[in-house]
Design goal:
The chain is flat, with a radius of gyration of 23 Å. By secondary structure, the chain is mainly alpha-helical. It is built from six helices and no strands. The protein has one domain. 64% of the residues lie in helices and 0% in strands. InterPro entries: B12D (IPR010530). It holds the Pfam family B12D. This is NADH-ubiquinone reductase complex 1 MLRQ subunit. Keywords: Membrane, Transmembrane, Transmembrane helix. It comes from Helianthus annuus (Common sunflower).
């Protein structure tokens, strides 16, 4: 790489762009690994592909009800509940 290319792309103004792209690539990679390793509809090896359609409802339920969904299930859908209750509930 020539020095002019480095000077063009490695300026402080470009750092947020690199950070945003890095986060996006990380999220895509995480979802890819999650689908390959845990999705009951994705079969990587030949033996599982030859099995055809399986009625594995327990495995599908385990994939769909992941830990984040279990964590937020009983939470209220408010971003700032204290601020919302302050303005909504007159005292």
């Amino acid at each position: 790489m020539s020095s002019s290319t480095l000077k063009r792309w490695l300026r402080p103004e470009v750092y947020p762009l690199f950070a945003a792209l890095g986060v996006a690539v990380g999220i895509c990679g995480m979802q890819l690994v999650r689908n390959i390793s845990g999705n009951p509809e994705v079969r990587v090896n030949k033996e599982n592909r030859a099995a055809g359609v399986l009625d594995n409802f327990a495995e599908g339920e385990r994939y769909a009800e992941h830990s984040l969904r279990k964590f937020v299930r009983n939470k209220s859908p408010e971003i700032m509940p204290n601020l919302n209750s302050f303005f909504a509930d007159p005292k």
